[in-house]
Amino acid sequence: MKIGLSTEHIIEKETGVGDYAYNIISNLLSIDKKNKYYLIHNRKINKDIFNKTNNLIIPLPKIKPRELLWHFYTLPKKLEKLGLDIFHSTAQLNSISNTKYKKMITIHDLAAIKFPHTHNLYPRLSAKYILPKVISKSDKIIAVSENTKKDIINYFKVDKDKIEVIYEAAEKIFKPVKTKKVLEKYNIDQPYILYVGTIEPRKNINLIIKAFQEIKRNNLPHKLVIVGKFGWKYQSILTSLKGSNDIILTGYVKKEDLPEFYSNAEFLVYPSLYEGFGLPPLQAMACSCPVISSNTSSLPEVIGNAGILINPKDKETLKSSMLKLIKDRSLISELKKKGLKQSKKFSWEESAKKTLNIYNSL
After folding, report:
1. What is the pLDDT of residues 300-343, one digit of tens each?
2. Domain check: are 111 and 32 in the same one?
3. What is the mean pLDDT of residues 251-278?
4. Is beta strand 267-270 parallel, antiparallel or unpaired with respect to 192-196?
5. Do residues 294 and 221 both lie within one domain?
6. DSSP label at 128?
7. Which entry of 163, 220, 234, 333 is 20 to 30 Å from 89 by CA?
8. Is 353 left (phi over 0), alpha (psi -120 to 50) or beta?
9. How many other C-beta atoms can be found within 10 angstroms of the C-beta atom of residue 112?
10. What is the CATH number of the domain that holds 17?
């Protein structure tokens, strides 16, 4: 078969969707020597997977309406000329016209529909008016969690048999490490509580900051380290940091440096309002870092009984959970062991094998 995969979200500073695309593709190329893969991109980028297979670079317009035309008309015509059997869009956008090739999409979440106030206008309109058409024209849908599958069925009335759940995973670099060279660069030399993720309202970072500032009244030596790139409406979060010497904002950190942040943290706090999957808690557990996270959306699927799950709107419960972990070293030790065990249930290689099975069935 000739199989095309969209790779426009694989960038130098990739986050969730780009991370998914990179890992699925790299593992497919490793396990499947039979089929021919084409990576469909809109710009040149220095990533190893692009040197291992065929590439089709089609420049993507910078203006949003023209970007839709690229996805719906320019791209399908190019792919039909290429003689593809399957085109798998790794990030929710695909052709809405009839094509000779089979169409697949991976849906990561429906945050723009469930929490529209946490997104700007373009993703809200896209999710409301375009995604339903893309879903109806797709031959198969991958959901990254059971919760995302449930959301797709509820909002779009899709036949459940059209959707297959294939989990994401933590890469092999995420494992316990003892080094502290990266921490030294950021002058982190005290015990710290960690958050990792995009800095935007949906991640509920203001709740973390308020809870942390209140537990600091107990004369704790801890810092709060916030790791992640700036997303949408981050200004209010920055405002809440003013005047605090106990909160360290690192900005974007390379993936290769994250294991050190996880491994040396007291624990990760991740009370996100909604996640399609939630990679940071899984990465943390793989690095033997205890996790406090939300009891909503997909996060209980990822964390299981290996972390502390709380109501993401309950500041008092978050505070008491943080204090409990700081004071109870035996609980810390227990969650480290449980987290490592839980993280091993997820594998990018297994996810790639399941994805390949779908290609073969189509």
Report:
1. 999 999 999 999 999 999 999 999 999 999 999 999 999 999 99
2. yes
3. 95
4. parallel
5. yes
6. I
7. 234
8. alpha
9. 20
10. 3.40.50.2000
